């Protein structure tokens, strides 16, 4: 996804980029000086598994307190169901407990874009939590561009604006002034395009 955006998406000459993929899980892609950074074993970018919360929620990785447990598509799904069960109202309230037909993340995104107040509120809360942690990444990497991609990026400004607000609040001003935060241009095509472009690049390298 990162390489797709770099080659065919919203990148316009920038060489230092973070791509934040907010889908069911949470991860980042890193480009430094125009090259993808993968780490020694290819496992860089496990942003969702930063220990960010003092909670008892078990992450998919088996640990507790991961950022992903409160700021991801799976977190959005869980929190919405919890809050409806606690008595809050949503246009999805009648969908949640239908047997053998679980609520999907795509349905929640659609509800956000239909201006469902509860879904919007949860997405904005997730954006604030993410922005606080992205602020730390900006302090470390000093990127020119931070691209917000993945399924939750389809909520547009509902996720982008809280991220920007938190970044301004929690990152160093002398660093964040260099960083532009934007939504993915390629949306759900970024992964496919990136894989194709990377395969082509490696093919020519081997000739």
Task: Describe what is shown at a glance.
This protein has 7 helices and 5 strands; from the N terminus they run H-E-E-E-H-H-H-E-H-H-E-H.
Characterization of this structure:
The protein is of the alpha/beta class and 207 residues long. The chain has one domain: Nucleotidyltransferase, domain 5 (2-Layer Sandwich). The protein is 43% helix and 12% strand. It is built from 7 helices and 5 strands, in the order H-E-E-E-H-H-H-E-H-H-E-H. It has a 5-stranded mixed sheet with strand order 3-2-1-4-5, covered by helices on one side. A hairpin with a 2-residue loop joins strand 2 and strand 3.
CATH topology: the name is: Nucleotidyltransferase, domain 5
In DSSP terms (H or I, runs of 4 or more residues), the helix count works out at 7
Strand order of the largest sheet: 3-2-1-4-5
**Proportion in β-strands:** 5-15%
Q: Can you identify the CATH class?
A: Alpha Beta
Second-tier CATH architecture = 2-Layer Sandwich
Report the order of strands and helices. Answer: HEEEHHHEHHEH
Distance between the first and last residues' Cα: 25 Å
Q: Let me know the CATH homologous superfamily.
A: ATPase, nucleotide binding domain
| Computed Rg | 18 Å
Oligomer: single chain
Structure classification? alpha/beta
What's the number of extended β-strand segments?
5
Q: Note the overall shape.
A: globular
Count of distinct structural domains: 1
Main sheet: strands, sense, barrel? 5 strands, mixed
- Mean pLDDT comes to 91
Fraction in helix: 40-55%
* Weakly predicted, low-confidence segments: none
InterPro entries: ATPase_NBD, ROK, ROK_cs
Protein name: Xylose repressor
